[in-house]
Amino acid sequence: MKILIVSATKFEIGSLLEKMSAVDSHNGTIFFCKYKDLEIDFLITGVGMVATSYFTGKVLDDSYDIALNIGICGSFNRNLEMGEIVNIYEDSFSELGAEDDDKFLTLEALNLPGISKIENKSGALHPVIESIPKVTGITVNTSHGNEASIKQVLDNFHPNVESMEGAAFMFVCENENIPYVQIRAVSNYVEKRNKDSWNIPLAIENLNKQVIEILEALNN
User: Fold this and answer.
1) What gap in Å lies between CA 86 and CA 182, rounded to an integer?
2) CATH node for 2-219
3) H or E stretch including 172?
4) Helices 166-176 and 49-59: angle between axes, nearest 10 degrees
5) pTM, two decimal places
6) 65: Cβ contacts below 8 Å, ≥ 6 apart
7) What separation in angstroms does the CA of 102 have from each of 105, 148, 156?
8) Domain residue spans in the chain?
């Protein structure tokens, strides 16, 4: 089985790479690895939708059996615990549209062509993946840290979490017809910016453990 794992930063997958064998790198952007009987390519895109779309689209082809987007995320949902792993099955480009005074108009409301919401149509991939709680997300260029904008995006989209890459990755996979999953760990709650309340190390530790569990399951 051949797997593509996409991450915005090497920081988020550092301990995963340490568990790989036969690691070879191309310009520090893609790492060609082996894990037991699995062939795994790690792609580091850089932060944001544009970089994720470009590099994922350039690499992804039908040689891959499955693609994983992994990373951390902020949670609007206080019922999600810090460090909790989620499967984002539906994601939206929440900034794609227009402002009409204090209202936000989506592409659909504007009757413009394009896609602002993506739902994962890959189907059941593996019981281990399906056991991860499924949530909805939004993908943003600017992480929320203002009470007014947080309220607006909650009213408009009702998201559980936010990231800066997820919907872009999903868009590429849907168009390339490659089975995929977006797995993230909660590193902070979406609120007025308060770095003292974040727990990025816990999120990354739990994320890497979860991905190893998925790889073990796919290897069997």
Assistant:
1) 8
2) 3.40.50.1580
3) helix 166-176
4) 30
5) 0.93
6) 1, 2, 3, 179
7) 10, 11, 12
8) 2-219
Q: What angle do CA 174, 134, 48 make, to 5 degrees?
A: 55
Question: Under a CB-based contact definition with an 8 Å cutoff, are residues 162 and 139 in contact?
Answer: yes
**Which single residue is written with the structure tokens 């997300």?**
137
Q: How far is CA 48 from the centre of its chain?
A: 11
Cα–Cα distance measured from residue 7 to residue 44, given in angstroms and rounded to the nearest whole number: 5
Instruction: Look at residues 77, 40, 48, 67 and name the one whose alpha carbon lies nearest to residue 186.
Output: 77
Over the stretch 13-70, which tens digit does the pLDDT of each residue have?
A: 988 988 998 777 777 789 999 999 999 999 999 999 999 999 999 999 999 999 999 9
Tell me the one-letter amino acid at 207. L
- Rounded Cα gap, residues 54 and 64, in angstroms: 17
Judge contact between 188 and 197, C-beta under 8 A: yes
| Cβ neighbours for 27, distance < 8 A, ≥ 6 positions apart | none
Residues with Cβ within 8 Å of residue 80, at least 6 apart in sequence: 86, 133, 135, 160, 161, 186
In angstroms, rounded to a whole number, what is the distance separating the alpha carbons of residues 200 and 12? 9
pLDDT tens digits, 101-136? 888 988 888 888 888 999 999 887 899 999 999 999
Contact 88, 140 (CB under 8 A): no
Record the tokens describing residue 28, joined without a space: 């520090």
The distance in angstroms from the start CA to the end CA of the chain is: 11
